[in-house]
Structures are given as structure tokens and as C-alpha cells.
Amino acid sequence: MEKNTLTETIIGCALKVHSALGPGLLESAYKECLYFELRKSGLYVEKEKALPLIYEEVKLECGYRVDLLVEREIVVEIKSIDALAEIHLAQVLTYLKLSKNRLGF
């Protein structure tokens, strides 16, 4: 699927979930519902995808986990907060770097 179409589908599913549930729930509720919607749209989605840190030849399990990895190329990190902070951007950038992907939400 072309990246623009893929991102439109992800955003559409996220808006559908948020419109249906509204604000105030835990992150896990939004994640499960978005996972369901993305799968229903026919996308391949991995939930809680572990990302190891490779240092030299050593694979370190540091506890990094992507909320959703869509079509093996788009990182989706779910937040249930009032406003994004710099740490949230850093988290997505870390996941992009470790997964060698280029697009994240």
C-alpha cells in the first residue's frame, strides 16, 4: 500500500476510535481499539512489538516496546495525556531509530 494511503487509513482509524470513545480513558483502551480498527481495515499490525538495542554484536533487551507497528514500517505510539512533551517526541524518535523505520505517529 502506498504510504499516503496507509497514513490516511491510520489517521482515519485513530479519529474513529477517539470519536467513539472520547477523552479520559487509559492508553491501553485506545491501543486495543485502534489495533482492532487497523486490523479491520486489512492492515498488518504488530502490538507491543519489542525493539532490542544492538550494541556492537550484543543484542540488549532494554524494554523498548512500540505500541503498534503498522505494515512493518509505521510506528504508532499511543498517548492519553493533556499535551505532548519533548520526552514523547524523543520516545518516537528512539523507536524509529531502533526499528530503522522513517515514519511514526
Your description of this structure?
This protein has one domain (3-104). Helices cover 45% and strands 28% of the residues. It has helices at residues 3-21, 27-40, 86-99; strands at residues 45-55, 58-70, 74-76, 103-104. The two termini are 18 Å apart. The mean pLDDT is 94.
Brief summary:
This protein has 105 residues and is of the alpha+beta class. It has helices spanning 3-21, 27-40, 86-99, and strands spanning 45-55, 58-70, 74-76, 103-104. β2 and β3 (74-76) form a beta hairpin.
Total individual domains: 1
Q: Which percent range fits the helix content?
A: 40-55%
Low-confidence stretches: none
What's the number of helices? Answer: 3
Strand order of the largest sheet: 1-2-3-4
In terms of quaternary structure, the protein is single chain
Chain-averaged pLDDT: 94
Largest sheet: 4 strands, mixed
Number of strands: 4
- Rg for CA atoms: 14 Å
Shape: globular
Give the amount of beta strand, in percent: 25-35%
- List the helices and strands in order: HHEEEHE
Distance between the ends = 18 Å
Please state the structural category.
Answer: alpha+beta
Labels describing this entry:
28% strand; globular; alpha+beta
Topology:
Layout: H1 3-21, H2 27-40, E1 45-55, E2 58-70, E3 74-76, H3 86-99, E4 103-104
Helix pairs in contact: 1-2
